[in-house]
Amino acid sequence: xxxxxxxxxxxxxxxxxxxxxxxxxxxxxxxxxxxxxxxxxxxxxxxxxxxxxxxxxxxxxxxxxxxxxxxxxxxxxxxxxxxxxxxxxxxxxxxxxxxxxxxxxxxxxxxxxxxxxxxxxxxxxxxxxxxxxxxxxxxxxxxxxxxxxxxxxxxxxxxxxxxxxxxxxxxxxxxxxxxxxxxxxxxxxxxxxxxxxxxxxxxxxxxxxxxxxxxxxxxxxxxxxxxxxxxxxxxxxxxxxxxxxxxxxxxxxxxxxxxxxxxxxxxxxxxxxxxxxxxxxxxxxxxxxxxxxxxxxxxxxxxxxxxxxxxxxxxxxxxxxxxxxxxxxxxxxxxxxxxxxxxxxxxxxxxxxxxxxxxxxxxxxxxxxxxxxxxxxxxxxxxxxxxxxxxxxxxxxxxxxxxxxxxxxxxxxxxxxxxxxxxxxxxxxxxxxxxxxxxxxxxxxxxxxxxxxxxxxxxxxxxxxxxxxxxxxxxxxxxxxxxxxxxxxxxxxx
Length: 494
Prior knowledge:
The chain has helices at 6-18, 23-39, 56-70, 88-98, 134-146, 184-187, 249-261, 273-276, 299-303, 325-333, 344-347, 369-376, 384-398, 433-446, 451-470, 479-489, and strands at 2-3, 47-52, 74-79, 103-106, 118-122, 150-153, 175-179, 197-201, 215-217, 238-242, 266-271, 286-289, 292-293, 296-297, 312-315, 339-341, 363-365, 401-404, 409-412, 418-421.
């Protein structure tokens, strides 16, 4: 499902208008959708308060009030601006509604009186600038104090469209009718806590005018590889996991478990003896000994490997200190196979992510926020829109698919496309779950899935596995359980 930033939505509307779609048709469609959503909260003949701002969002609210009147409802319009400020189709809607004797009008300086069954918030939508103040702020406080069911037009007023940030105060809606497409404010915290149930009304804009938007919400499992039931295990691909050290043997085994559970026909774990002999060993995993120093893999040993028996390689979890980063970079860049780079492997490219752009085989990097900061060499805030920008920058500078872990998770590609996975929860923040995700992605790559859908598919299965475990117990989930449960969630459709 596509997600549009405010300017992208305006551009899509502009293209629709240029192609001959009348603006009044969009407003009628939007008003009808909002009226339908409001009707769900109204008894027959019920009373609805419509709070109207001066822009096109207000025009949508006025149009919704007209539709409600046609359904036999009562409408009170609280106009938060002088009518002289209305323009275009919003002004036309005002003139039509002004002649309806059944409408009660409340001036911006007044306070609505009487009882209402529901309210429509048509103050700002995506047009918010600055902080809420004056009549708009007073209206938001009024709606909060009356505890009415509220339907928001496009976005709850006070929620910023592109960031999900709240402009001091915001309407808490029970339902939000997203016009044209979802906005980041619908899915980014804290905005997502204000939108209630979200209904997307395409208004004739989707898919024709928004199909090329770069940001998408990944709600269904992206298409995967998938082999026939009778095909041999080699058809499902061989995933090679290079991971672990004497200090962190568990990270290697969790990544290998993720690869095995992710559907790789064969999983090979290459590491030092201290890892391969660890009691966490899985009998299904093939072991390959690598020369080590001080309990860690010697990067020079990787340069002697050909990786001819692997369709995909995962490297990084639990490798330990990157004391010789240049040697690790040479070893990693020499791997001519689809690659997942995570954890300590990413540290070899701290401050120089562009060095990854020379790889010709598909690459997926999977940093968390701290690793993203080290890779980029500058501060990155933890707000969703800042993390989104960091994912886009990582993909652009590395030439790789950048999966930035967190809530939500972003999967960005060098051409500017971004998938957003708004699933999972605190169970995915426990130790080892990131290692499992690395293995899951490697399994998808080994099966021939392209880098972006491989990352999206694995991340969605990973998140849903966490949700499934959370439904069984509030706490105490193990990363190994995430891997085992991911095998069940892979291939599920929402």
